[in-house]
Each structure stands twice: as structure tokens, then as C-alpha cells.
Amino acid sequence: MENRGAGAEPQHEHVEKKNVIPLLTPYKMGPFHLSHRIVLAPLTRQRSYNNVPQSHAILYYSQRTTKGGLLIAEATGVSDTAQGYPQTPGIWTKEQVEAWKPIVDAVHAKGGIFFCQLVHVGRVSNQDLQPNGQAPISSSDKPLAPQVQTKGVIVGQFTPPRRLRTDEIPQIVNDFRLAARNAIEAGFDGVEIHGAHGFLIDQFLKDEVNDRTDQYGGSIDNRCRFALEIVEAIANEIGAHRVGIRISPFANFNESGDSNPEALGLYIAESLNKYGILYCHMVEPRFTIVGENCVTPHSLLPMRKAFNGTFLVAGGYGREDGNKAVAEGCADLVVYGRIFLANPDLPKRFELDAPLNKYNRDTFYTPDPVVGYTDYPFLETTS
Ligand SMILES: Cc1cc2nc3c(=O)[nH]c(=O)nc-3n(C[C@H](O)[C@H](O)[C@H](O)COP(=O)(O)O)c2cc1C
């Protein structure tokens, strides 16, 4: 489509500009030289048995690696209280760190840049997934309602959480710090702090959940304190140039909404500048709880303008609006989830404007090491 316009012959340089696909232009993100702007989103795949990454992830991630492409690994637990879904990976034990190494090596062997997403799910958990059957921890003791699918099937049962005491919070910050250290030890190029989607950090950020009366609750700056302490601890540990954070101010996943998401998002974007971290990754306001785009008057532009580092956007993007976001300066990089999952060669398909494989929702979270994981066809075999 970018090849149109051969009528009255413009200057060579102009034609070249017209042919440029914005998503496929290079970008320098701190010390990392990216060859394009199409990023693999963090995607929980629930195939890491007993919380240990498995060798089948080598193929999965290397299939989605391009030379100079950025990949963000699936949400990875920072401690034994961090897990909320079965068979998700962790990075708090030596065994887990060792298991990540060949996966990271495979991505590097193909020239990819690989960040590890660090998560603590907080109250989005169940006592069966917690050490000694204890209650999950949170900013609050507000319980989360069971998650029910449209057909009435309960897909998530949550144990009412225990509110963290003020004096326990530094320990959780420390768990994130150690996990970041472990991620670097495993070979990752950096980490993404998962501050989105109603998990522990978001449970502090959002006033629908956070009802604390100490210095971690109440005003926006108090609610952001926990997130920023984690940012600071990790930046001090591994270097700010290796740190990104994901935030979803407008989302209300896991009953974690906010009464003033613009102010919250803006406050975080501005505050992050103090630490000089590499990137801020925000989920679009249009991307609501049902996982489809909706019409919204809100925009990430004020946050993009406020943040000094690299700005990543995610949520319902395709080729056309991804190109537009980059061309118009709304984002530096565009993060793709479901269509990258189903199209391991997504950058190639975008380059050729080729058709896309459809994703199969039914196999997003199944534990099979191949089906719905590494069996999506590449372009060559599709045609
Ligand atoms: C199967 C699946 C797993 C996901 N796992 C994570 C995750 O581990 N961490 C995270 O921050 N977001 C996760 N998400 C959200 C995606 O990263 C992404 O933001 C979302 O799918 C919207 O982007 P898309 O429209 O390009 O798919 C997941 C989404 C899907 C479909």
C-alpha cells in the first residue's frame, strides 16, 4: 500500500519517504539498537510446569525473534507469594534462573533484545498457589469476586487477601530487586516491572482497591509510592537503562479501576523521569476489560509527552494504526500481543502487508508444549 503514487514523478528522496513503513524503521532505545518498532507483548502462556521455564520456550521465543527486535517475556513471578495462575514461570530460585538461560541465549543468538516482565499478582491468587496455603497479600483486604466466563464457567477463584502491614512492604520491594538481579544473571537485557492489569502494584496504584491509611494509600503520590520504590530499587540494582515499567491507568481488570486515571497516569509518567528509566509501556484506554477496542475520549498523549524516555503503547493494535502511532509520534514502539502470538513472523508480514493467521483463544492458556504455542504457521508455509 505504501508503494502508491507513481504518477507525477517526485524526487527520489520523497519516494523513499513514501515507501517507508514507520513500524519498520530503526530506533535507538538507550543502549539498544532496535531494527524495527514491533515489540512482542508479555504473554502468559502457562506452560512453565512447577513455575520453572521449560525447554519448549526456546522454540517459542526464538520463533518470534528478529535481529534487533525487542521481546518482552511473559509475566514472571518475583517470589513464592507472587503466583496467581498455575504453570507460570518464576525467577526467584536458582533452578528458575538456570532454566531461563538457554531461552535467553536462543533469543540472543538470533540478535533479539529480551526483557523479563516481573510480576507479583497480589490478591489475584488463591491459597492453593500460596506457600503453606496462606492468604494472598495485597494493599487491601478487599476480596476479588470469582471470574466467570460468558458460559458461566468459573475460571478464577480467589482467596480473600491479607492487607500488607506497612513494615512488610520493604520486603516485597526487595523481592522485586532480587528478581531483577536474577533476570540479569539469567542473561536478560533488562526487566519490565508489571504495574498493570490489577496485579499487586496496580492494587496500590488504584483507588478502587487501595483503601490504606498509611503512607502507601490515599493521595495519588501515596498510592504511587510502592511502584516508585520498586522502580528505584531495581534501577539502583541493575541500572536505569535496563528498566521499563508497564502501566494501565485506564484499565479496570481484576476490579482495579481508578476514579481519575488521567491524573494517575500523568503523575506516574512525570515521576518516572526522576529515575531516568529506559521505557514506559502503557496500555491504551480503548483496551477495556473485554479485550476488544472501545470508543473512548481518553488518550495516552499527555503521558507520552510527560515521559522523557522511550514510550511503548499496547492494546488492540494492527498494522495500520501501529504505523500511524509511530508516524504521528504518539509512540516510539508498538507492542503486539495476540497477533504476534499467532504470527511468529509478524514483522515480516507487516513488511509485506501479508495476511495474518487468526489467533485461537481456546489455546491461550492450555499447558500443551506445542499446540497453540509453537505450531502457528510461518508465511512461507501458509502460502
Ligand atoms: C494469552 C495472553 C496472555 C497475556 N499475558 C500477559 C502478561 O503476562 N503480562 C501482561 O502485562 N499482559 C499480558 N497480556 C496482555 C497483552 O500483553 C496485551 O497487552 C493485550 O493482549 C493487548 O494487546 P493485543 O491487542 O495486541 O493483544 C496477555 C494477553 C493475552 C491474550
Automatic annotation (TrEMBL):
- Domain NADH:flavin oxidoreductase/NADH oxidase N-terminal positions: 23-355
As cofactor, the record names: FMN
Q: Which UniProt keywords apply?
A: Flavoprotein, FMN, NADP, Oxidoreductase
Its domain of life reads Eukaryota
Cite the GO molecular-function annotations of the record. Answer: 12-oxophytodienoate reductase activity; FMN binding
Q: Which InterPro entries match?
A: Aldolase_TIM, OxRdtase_FMN_N, Oye-like
Keyword check for Flavoprotein, yes or no. yes
Q: Which PANTHER family match?
A: NADH OXIDOREDUCTASE-RELATED, NADPH DEHYDROGENASE 2-RELATED
Instruction: Give the family from UniProt.
Output: Belongs to the NADH:flavin oxidoreductase/NADH oxidase family.
Q: Which protein are we looking at?
A: NADH:flavin oxidoreductase/NADH oxidase N-terminal domain-containing protein
